[in-house]
Design a protein that fits this description.
binds guanosine-5'-monophosphate, 7 helices, 4-stranded parallel β-sheet, alpha/beta, about 200 residues, globular, 4-stranded mixed β-sheet, 8 strands
C-alpha cells in the first residue's frame, strides 16, 4: 500500500528551541512549502511585520474570529492568544499544496485530531532544558516573567513528544535542518525544489 501523502507538516517544540530559524531555512530549501500565517494578540517584536510573521490583532478581533469558526485551533500561550486561520489551510489543501506550520504542541495535537490523514507532526527538541533556558535568555526579547512562563510551558510541551510522528533534536542547524527536511520530503513525497 502507498503511504499517505501528508499535506500539513507541523513543526512544533518549546519556545526558544529554534523553530523559527529552522523553518526559515527549510522554506529557503523547499520553496514549494506554503506558509500559513497565524493570528496572534501578542505585541509585535522589532523586525516583525503584520501579515508576515503573524496577523497581529486585538483580543476582541481574535475572539470574534474564533467565535465565528474562522480558526481551526487556538491556544492561550503566555498571556496571548494564537490561532490557525481555517481559510488558508482549506485553500492550500484544496489546491493540493504542502504546508509548513510552526505552532505549539497543543495546537499541533489539535490539528492532528482534525486532519489525521493529512497531518505529519515533527517535534523539535532542545538538547536539554538548561540549553533552552540559555537560549530564551540570550534571545533578549523576553522579560523574566515571560521567560518563566515559556519555560513552564516548555516542560509540558516536552512531555508531549511521544505523541508526535518524529522528534529531531536541534543541537546543530547543520544537522537538524537536513534531518527535518528529509522527514518532510518523505512525508510529503516530494524532493528538492520539485513540486508534485
Ligand atoms: P512567539 O510568541 O514566540 O512568536 O510564539 C509563541 C508560541 O506560539 C510558539 O511556540 C509558536 O510556535 C506558537 N504559535 C504560533 N502560531 C500559532 C498558532 O496559530 N497556533 C498555536 N497553537 N500556536 C502557535
Amino acid at each position: 500500500m502507498m503511504p499517505a501523502v501528508k499535506k500539513l507538516i507541523i513543526l512544533s517544540g518549546p519556545s526558544g528551541v529554534g523553530k523559527g530559524t529552522v523553518c526559515k531555512l527549510l522554506r529557503a530549501r523547499m520553496p514549494w512549502l506554503v506558509h500559513p500565517v497565524s493570528l496572534t494578540t501578542r505585541a509585535m517584536r522589532e523586525g516583525e511585520q503584520d501579515g508576515r510573521e503573524y496577523f497581529f490583532v486585538t483580543r476582541e478581533a481574535f475572539i470574534a474570529k474564533r467565535d465565528a469558526g474562522e480558526l481551526l485551533e487556538s491556544v492561550e500561550y503566555n498571556g496571548a492568544l494564537y490561532g490557525t486561520p481555517r481559510a488558508q489551510i482549506d485553500a492550500a489543501l484544496a489546491a493540493g499544496q504542502t504546508m509548513l506550520l510552526e505552532i505549539d504542541a497543543e495546537g499541533a495535537l489539535a490539528l492532528k485530531q482534525l486532519f489525521a490523514d493529512d497531518a505529519f507532526l515533527i517535534f523539535l527538541a532542545p538538547p536539554s532544558l538548561e540549553v533552552l533556558l540559555e537560549r530564551l535568555k540570550t534571545r533578549g526579547q523576553n522579560c523574566e516573567t515571560d521567560i518563566a512562563g515559556r519555560l513552564a510551558r516548555a516542560q509540558w510541551e516536552m512531555a508531549q513528544q511521544a505523541k508526535f510522528d518524529a522528534v529531531v533534536t536541534n543541537d546543530l542547524l547543520e544537522r537538524s535542518v537536513p534531518a527535518v527536511a528529509a522527514l518532510i520530503e518523505a512525508a510529503a513525497c516530494q524532493t528538492g525544489q520539485a513540486k508534485a
